[in-house]
Amino acid sequence: MATNNPLGGQGGAGLQGSRLLQLDFPQSLAVYDDYAAAQKAVDFLSDQEFPVENCMIVGTDLKQVERITGRLTTNKVALGGALSGLWLGILIVTIFAINLRLFPSGGFPLKGWSSFGEAAVALALPVLTVALVIAASLLRYVRSATQDVIGSDYLRTARALGSGYVAALLRHGLRNGAVPVISILGIELATSFLGAVVIEKVYALPGLGSMLLLAISQRDYPDVQGVLFVSTLLVLLIGFAADLVQRLIDPRLRGQVHTA
What we know:
This protein has helices spanning 15-21, 25-30, 35-46, 58-82, 85-99, 116-122, 124-150, 153-160, 165-195, 197-203, 208-217, 221-249. The chain has 260 residues and is an all-alpha fold.
C-alpha cells in the first residue's frame, strides 16, 4: 500500500528524498517551494528509528579502561615499593637457581671478566633483581609521562594532519615523554651502586658496597676514601650522561643553563 511521503513520490523514493539522504542540503532544500514542506521532510526523518543496539559509548569505555589501568599501575608500584631487595633476591634465587637450576645461586668466577660467559651468567640474577627494584619506582613516572604526551596538543595536531596514532606517538611523543623518565632513571642508577649492598650479600658478589662495609669494619680509611671517591665519580658521570641524553632528545634544553 502506497503511503504519502513528504520526501517526494510514494514510499520516499523521490528525487528530493535521495538528495536529502545524501546530505546534499542546498540542492535538497532548493526543490521545496516553501518552508513548511522542508520542515515536514525534516520531521519525517526525525521520526524514523535506526538500529543502535550494537553501538557503545566509546568515551565512557576509554575512561573506564584508563581508570582500571591506573589502579593496576598504582597497585604494581605499591607492591614493588613494599618488596625489599633482600626478599626479592631470595625469591629469585629460589625459583631460578634452586628449583629450575638455570643460573648459579651466587658467587663470581675466579677468572673474572676474562671468562666473559661465566661472568655474564653469574650476574644475570643480580641484574634482574636490581632491574625489578628500579622498575617498580620507574613505572609510575613512565605512566605519567605517557598520559601527558597522549593528551598534548602537538600529538593531536599530528593526527589531524594525517599521521597514524602509532606513527605520531613514535615520532613526536616518544622523545618528549622520555625526558623526565631519563632524569629518574639516572637517579635510580646512581643510587643503585651503593644501594645494592644487600643484593651483593644475597648473591655473594664482591661489589663496592661490600668493600665499603668491610673497610669500615676494619677501619681501613684509604679503602673507605677510595670507594667513596669512585662512587661519587660514578654518580657525577651518570648525572652528566643523563643531561647529555636529555639535550640530544629535546632541542629546547640545549640553550638552557642551570644555575644554582
